[in-house]
Amino acid sequence: MTVLRTPPSPAKEVPRFPPLTLSNPEMVAKHTPCTLHPSILPPELACRLFYAMMDASEDWKRNKWWLFDRLVESPHRTSFYVRRPNEADADAVDVGSEEWQEASHYWYNGRNTEKPCYFPDVLEEACHIVERVVNEEMKKRKRFPLEWAGDASGVWRANVAAANRYEGGKESVGAHADRMTYLGPYPTIASISLGTSRVFRLREVVPSNQKEDRHAQTFNIPLSHNSLLVMHGSTQERFKHWVPPQPTIDVYRPSYPRNPNGCIEPSNCRINITFRFYRPDFHPSTIPRCKCGLPTDLRADMKNRQDGKTDKYWWHCNGAVQNDGKDCGFWRVLDMKAEERGPCLYDKVEEPCTSGCKDAA
Ligand SMILES: O=C(O)CCC(=O)C(=O)O
Ligand SMILES: [Fe+2]
């Protein structure tokens, strides 16, 4: 017997757009929730910071983690710095204190047991400039209800910095969104690049309910020496970012010699420094432990984004990266109220901004 069925309707044609290079600040602001400043520090300071971080990076380590049954190493070196609290500032958090040490170990996937270094003077000098620019930017933007609002002064500041060194074009970092364990939701992350220019890549994670309607586009942002990329709130909730290996790179020629009468040595290294704010309401003592007894990871539920206020985040076991690849399967939804976190901008933001809203991009 032949059964006649109506043929299935052809799948909807959803256009795919090729990767787009965002070569100026206007394009970056149009397509992403980030802002680009091509030249952020006075040139002499940028060069001094490059040399200081190149010297320090001799001691930086490659992160290690378990991928299934294999111990793998990051294809770049990394380090973690904490800022000395400002005595004059009553709100300042001493993330260098013993109670915060766990947060620095977490950067190294629980491996590093040494005390993190305080910002060297040159990093402190750069940080002041970065903070001023970030705060100017933030004033112009629509903010998100879950952002931190506990600072009496209302200004953004950095209390930690993570640094990476990429040597040559082969070194890279894989696609990820930054873990929010100590940053909390909608963090602002300010990223300085020094040395060789590399491409920074961003790609949105399209929510499950929009998958049939649109594809994500890949954006390439060339980050040259002394540029600042500010990843504003929602970047970690909506996008993954990475620095891909690059077959060719332009060697960086510093504008100043290392020593007054020395010669200029070209370099094939890129140094990246991300300034971050570890929130007091995400203090290590408040981070849920999984069944392995380890601090859990906080991640945004990127595929089910909501309205900027009711977005979901999960605490989940981070054991797989540390524990011979074994994960205890623990997870729990973040509940800001029940976990007594905040204060957030909730009450100050009149209308919630949808994660995809244009002003927030
Ligand atoms: O090197 C960069 O620009 C990105 C580094 C990064 O994504 C990270 O450290 O989380
Ligand atoms: Fe990152």
TrEMBL record:
Domain of life: Eukaryota
Residues annotated as domain Fe2OG dioxygenase: 157-279
Pfam families noted in UniProt: 2OG-FeII_Oxy_2
SUPFAM superfamilies: Clavaminate synthase-like (SSF51197)
Biological process terms in GO annotation: DNA alkylation repair
One Gene Ontology term of the molecular function aspect: dioxygenase activity
Protein name (Swiss-Prot/TrEMBL): Fe2OG dioxygenase domain-containing protein
Organism for this UniProt entry: Heliocybe sulcata
